[in-house]
Amino acid sequence: MFVGVLEVTLSLEGNRSLKDKRRVISSLLGRVKARFNCSAAEVGAQDRHALAVLGFTVCGSDFKILNSVLAHLLNFVEDNAEAQVVDSQIDCATWDGLGEWTEDERQAPGKD
Q1: Helix axes 63-80, 18-35, angle to 10 degrees
Q2: Residue 71 falls within a domain, yes or no?
Q3: DSSP assignment letter at 12
Q4: Which of 1, 25, 66, 82 has the smallest CB count inside 10 Å?
Q5: Can you give the pTM of this predicted structure?
Q6: How much is the average pLDDT of 4-20?
Q7: Within a domain: residue 65?
Q8: Angle at 44 between CA 36 and CA 63, to 5 degrees
Q9: CA–CA separation, 5 vs 13, rounded Å?
């Protein structure tokens, strides 16, 4: 089984409070969850109103499809967020069913 993770850092320069940030992030996460079959959460910078780090996770049995979903998800966030994407990282690993994670030999998008 392949597991893919997308981490996106957003700049929310127009926000003046954590309440404004929650509104933007909740709206975006709701739209992502409705459109993609993924887990999504704010995973960092929770105490900063001008920055958000979001994490998205998908799993599947086909590496190419998984990478395609993550790439489409990133494009969706870039096109639909009320914020600017300042950084993103996609990574994929293989779960062997025995409690071991292994880095997949195929290169995920965004990796050098």
Answers
A1: 140
A2: yes
A3: -
A4: 1
A5: 0.79
A6: 86
A7: yes
A8: 40
A9: 25
CA dist 62 and 69 (Å) reads 11
User: Does residue 94 or residue 40 have the better pLDDT?
Assistant: 40
Asked if 71 contacts 19 with a C-beta cutoff of 8 angstroms, the reply is no
92 in a structural domain: yes
Q: Report residue 79 as tokens.
A: 């096109």
Q: What is the largest CA-CA distance in the chain?
A: 47
Residue 98: Cβ within 10 Å count: 5
Residue 110 falls within a domain, yes or no? no
For 60, counting Cβ atoms within 10 Å of its Cβ (0-12 exposed, 13-18 middle, 19+ buried), the class is: middle
- The total number of structural domains in the chain stands at 1
Question: Is the distance from CB of 64 to CB of 29 less than 8 angstroms?
Answer: no
